[in-house]
């Protein structure tokens, strides 16, 4: 197969995605149309395969192999959805937000924005939700203090994306190791090597900026704190549940078991700490065994929302349960179909070989992965596809170089997830600028964590810092 034949499905996929996002569905493209376009891309790849004497049976066998390889990731996603539901109704997530909001200080306001948004994004697993709720509030507070909207937006986005990357509840954090063939908690642990230094540099820069600019007034957060306090029973005792889960992870408990334990403990905590919320979700008048069972089960499986007196916070206190993860699962399955056909016809191997001939070193492999992620963010306009397509393209190349899948999954996140918000026509850039009311060009420079992350991962690759090797069986 020639390199041009191998590129036909990729070019067709990018072209279809471009039309789908720009002219047809816009931000709604992730609701299903992008997933179907991955299947259309697979059909184009299959046609190329037929011309190269690859049988339908071979393609289906490779698809089945690919989908099977993601079984663990799909189950983890379902469990993550259920955990998010029970941690919401138990008050664990609201408690994290409640204490996070109290670290505001005018002098270190920008650095505090990073920390607050990081805490909330880790708790919720969503940078989008964080920006659309607490982010908007922080933009307003920063404006009253006389701080540039671009600075505040950059700090909000930096913290939100750091938390999103480090949260096991995040769909992109689950997607990256699924594409690379790695494991969730190992991926998160390996990401800390590049992510933590990057966020520390970000905080230092914002502290310096905060010390050199004039601020006036004090941030008003009493309304938000009161809204949380009136809707939930806030207690530091609720931190026992996440501490137990973290302990299980440190003890190298399998992810499914750790998440299941966190989900069940969250359900028990909800019954003890928030009986009124459990009863309301169950649609019952009193708490008994049946209403407790129904309330917790609903939180685990379907959409759940807890209303507060603050409209800004209401979107934050929603969870989709297992059903909320079905869109990401759908995306993974369709990506595996596309990747399976591309593997079967030899296209991914041919493209990887061509790229590696340009960059034969280990650093070159990392650099080409970063470049591919950035190119997909610019052309396909979607962070998920900037993870999915390079993930399938480079999985075998990293393995052939003797590199563990954590190297690839970390690079996908460092260059695919975080840079999407820096592209105005990307779904992430359009969403964040629209929600925060700040153009991308205004916050681009101050989204320090986001544009610094790809440089950090390349720096680690250049000096061979924490480059994990595959272990001999």
Average pLDDT over all residues: 86
Fraction of residues in β-strands: under 5%
As laid out across the biggest beta sheet, the strand order is 1-2
From the N-terminal CA to the C-terminal CA, the straight-line distance is 33 Å
Number of structurally distinct domains: 2
Comma- or semicolon-separated keywords:
globular; mainly alpha; 473 residues; 24 helices; 1% strand; two-stranded antiparallel ribbon
Describe this structure in words.
- With 473 residues, this protein is an all-alpha fold.
- The protein has two domains: 3-69 and 327-462, no CATH class; 73-324, no CATH class.
- Helices cover 74% and strands 1% of the residues.
- The chain has 24 helices and two strands.
- The protein has helices at residues 3-25, 33-51, 56-69, 71-89, 92-101, 109-124, 127-144, 149-166, 171-180, 184-212, 222-231, 240-250, 255-273, 275-282, 289-301, 311-314, 326-344, 347-358, 362-379, 383-400, 405-417, 427-436, 440-443, 448-462, and strands at 304-305, 318-319.
- The protein has a two-stranded antiparallel sheet.
- α6 packs parallel to α8 (149-166) and α10 runs parallel beside α21.
- The longest helix is centred in the middle third of the chain and has 29 residues, at 184-212.
- The radius of gyration is 22 Å and the shape is globular.
- The two termini are 33 Å apart.
Quick synopsis:
This protein has a two-stranded antiparallel sheet. Helix 7 packs antiparallel against helix 8 and helix 21 runs antiparallel to helix 24 (448-462). It has helices spanning 3-25, 33-51, 56-69, 71-89, 92-101, 109-124, 127-144, 149-166, 171-180, 184-212, 222-231, 240-250, 255-273, 275-282, 289-301, 311-314, 326-344, 347-358, 362-379, 383-400, 405-417, 427-436, 440-443, 448-462, and strands at 304-305, 318-319.
